[in-house]
Amino acid sequence: MTGAIGATIFGVAGPVLSDAEARFFRAANPFGFALFARNVEDPRQLRTLTAALREAVGREATIFVDQEGGRVQRLRPPHWRDWLPALDLVDRVTATSGLEGAVRAIWLRYRIIASELANAGIDGNFAPCLDIATDATHSVLRNRCLGRDAGSVTALGRAAAEACLAGGVLPVIKHMPGHGRSTVDSHVGLPTVSTDRDVLEATDFAPFRAMADLPFAMTAHVTYVDVDPSGPATTSAPMIRLLRDGIGFRGLLMTDDLSMEALSGTPASRASAALSAGCDLILHCSSDPAEMQAVADVAGTLPPDRAIPARSIATPADMAALEAELASLLSGRARV
User: Fold this and answer.
1) Res 185: pLDDT
2) Each residue of 1-41: pLDDT tens digit?
3) Tens-place pLDDT, residues 110-128
4) pLDDT class for 305, splitting at 50, 70, 90?
5) Distances from the Cα of 198 to the Cαs of 131, 183, 206, in angstroms?
6) Has residue 149 got a pLDDT over 60?
7) Taking residues 192-209, what's their average pLDDT?
8) Within a 13 Å sphere around the CA of 296, how many CA atoms are in the beta-carbon half?
């Protein structure tokens, strides 16, 4: 189809695209789609679904998935590999091969993941997490983090992002500007961080500043009191200005899932608030038809001055060799 592209990324109800969903997507023309475990059965089914989604909008829309590894991975055995939580992998390899070895292991991990995604017709990964783990980080996030300090998270995050790109998949850095100090699960409540801004600039914000050149970022549903005490980053104009002018991010900024309980109001009012604050894309994952229609109505279309990232082209790689190298690093046999 032709026409302006919607400022939305929508979820899908099940493993097969329904006729009603196809009609809605054809009319709404969302920027892209987000897949979850409910959409995944086997490789053949998944390739059929991703092709049907692109056929519905008549273009090569970006199809995203959460494939961090560990607890947050939507493609799982027996058809796809299982993965350690990111922080567990980093700790294991660092113990024998140092940070350099961990950086290599993370690159290998995400290069293999990217190959699996690309083979299924998925070309966007909601990863890497650039949040910094602390002893107080909520358990829903902690072992999804890559490290415990800004320097290591930056090095490991850069490796993950470059591996995704090498495998033909666009990475999404999250949760901007840093979710690691949250002691509340933003799926069920609104986290508040009261740390001084100068401390945040030197720590939590630093990995995002160092990786601000990447094409996509996802906001944190977290209130940073010293920047804007009125509400979460996703709907905060002062925070979005900081992301653009202070951190320097110029790519497409998407919200975290609009359905999470950290946000208040109706789906439409949440979408309107996020767009008014300066977000580019609304991520709505529930696949509820009425909610999607309401969000599409208020979201409108992506402004013409917002550049759409080019599709990443995979470079050839020997998957068996990469897997063997990663296994060697994880076992402690390899030294970098």
Assistant:
1) 84
2) 457 999 999 999 999 999 999 999 999 999 999 999 999 99
3) 999 999 999 999 999 999 9
4) confident
5) 17, 20, 11
6) yes
7) 97
8) 23
- Residues 24, 11: Cα–Cα separation, whole Å: 12
Separation in Å, CA 216 to CA 26, 94, 175, 261:
24, 28, 11, 23
Q: Could you write out the three-class secondary structure of the chain?
A: CCCCCEEEEEECCCCCCCHHHHHHHHHHCEEEEEECHHHCCCHHHHHHHHHHHHHHHCCCCEEEECEEECCEECCCCCCCCCCCCHHHHHHHHHHHHHHHHHHHHHHHHHHHHHHHHHHCCCCEECCCECCECCCCCCCCCHHHCCECCHHHHHHHHHHHHHHHHHCCCEEEEEEECCCCCCCCCCCCCCCEECCCHHHHHHCCCHHHHHCCCCCEEEECCCEECCCCCCCCHHHCHHHHHHHHHHCCCCCEEECCCCCCCCCCCCHHHHHHHHHHHCCCEEEECCCCHHHHHHHHHHHCECCCCCCCCCCCCCCCCCHHHHHHHHHHHHHCCCCC
Peptide bond preceding 229: is omega within 30 degrees of 0, i.e. cis? no
Residues annotated as part of the active site = 187, 256
Question: What integer pLDDT is reported at residue 319 of this predicted model?
Answer: 97
Answer yes or no: is pLDDT of 42 > 70.
yes
Name 10's bridge partners: 33, 284
Q: What angle do CA 154, 279, 191 make, to 5 degrees?
A: 65
Cβ-count burial of 95 within 10 angstroms (0-12 exposed, 13-18 middle, 19+ buried)?
exposed
Can you read off the two tokens belonging to residue 188?
């069920």
Give the sign of the dihedral formed by CA 143, CA 147, CA 149, CA 153: negative
What's the confidence (pLDDT) of residue 335? Answer: 64
CA 160, 165, 168, 171 dihedral sign is positive
Task: List CB contacts of 280: < 8 A, sequence separation 6 or more.
Answer: 7, 252, 253, 254, 302, 303, 306
Mind listing the pLDDT tens digit for each residue in 281-297?
Answer: 999 999 999 999 999 99
